[in-house]
Each structure stands twice: as structure tokens, then as C-alpha cells.
Amino acid sequence: MLINIGHHHYIPADEILLIIPSDTQSAVARMNFAKERGMYTDATKAERRRSLVITKTGEVIATFRKPDTLRNHIHRETTPMLIITPGTLPHVSEIPDVGSPAPDFPLMNKSNSVDGGAFQ
């Protein structure tokens, strides 16, 4: 699952190690350390830096989103999705089965609704 950290920047959720507020002294030290080693990315687009995302590989990414917002994006329930890049269209047998509605589940319409079709 990809997490939107803002301004159309995405990070794979399984690569995120830490999300910390950027206004702490240890966060600034970690950011400066990453800058010295070329492992710092600024994804704020000149907006106020509010959090740092540290990946498993040690990269530090600054973002304007608050840490709580990023955590909510990670923990929010999502539907399974298949990402297809140009030129890599999978064969039908490779597409995972995400399940289907039960075949005996009746479809609701105006004629068989409990309220006689008052729902809109």
C-alpha cells in the first residue's frame, strides 16, 4: 500500500520505520545527519515542515503533513488494489481474487425494498 505524504509524493507503507514530529531536537539532528549523507528528501514544496518519515533504508523524508495524519493514512482501512505500470499488464491468472458478493444476496431496488422505494 502506498501512503500519500503530500503533493503527489508516495511511500510504500511497509518501508516506513518511523514518523516523528520535525520540531524536536532529535528530529533536527537526524535530518542534518541524513543531509550530510545525501539521504534527505524535502517533500514539503516550501510549506512548513511538520514531520519526518524515516524509512527502513535510513532515508529521511520531510513532509508538511502532521504525524497523526500520516499515521491515520497508514491505519485507514483500504480496499485491495492492483497497481499496473505501463507495459506490465498481468495475465488474468495473475490477478488476485479479492472475493465477490455472495451469489444469493438479493440486489436492492425500488420494487423489493422494505420502504417501497422511498430510498434515493
Task: Note the topology.
Blueprint lengths: L1 E5 L2 E4 L3 E6 L3 H12 L3 E3 L8 E5 L4 E4 L3 H9 L45
Parallel strand pairs: 4-6
Antiparallel strand pairs: 1-2, 3-5, 5-6
Task: Point out poorly predicted stretches.
Answer: 77-81, 100-110
Strand content: 15-25%
- What fraction, in percent, of the residue positions are helical? 10-25%
Based on CA atoms alone, the radius of gyration comes out at 22 Å
What does the overall shape look like?
globular
The helix/strand series, from N terminus to C terminus, equals: EEEHEEEH
Category from helices, strands and their pairing: alpha+beta
For the record, give the distance between the C-alpha atoms at the N and C termini, rounded to a whole number: 34 Å
Number of helices: 2
Based on DSSP secondary structure assignment, what is the total number of beta strands? Answer: 6
- The strand line-up of the biggest sheet is 3-5-6-4
Largest sheet: 4 strands, mixed
Overall average residue pLDDT: 75
Provide a compact summary of the structure:
The chain has 120 residues and is an alpha+beta fold. It contains two helices and six strands.
Describe the structure.
This protein is an alpha+beta fold and 120 residues long. The chain has a domain at 2-75. It has two helices and six strands. Strands 3-5-6-4 form a four-stranded mixed sheet, sandwiched between helices. Strands 1-2 form a two-stranded antiparallel ribbon. A hairpin with a 4-residue loop joins β5 and β6.
Please supply descriptive tags for the structure shown above.
120 residues, alpha+beta, 4-stranded mixed sheet, two-stranded antiparallel sheet
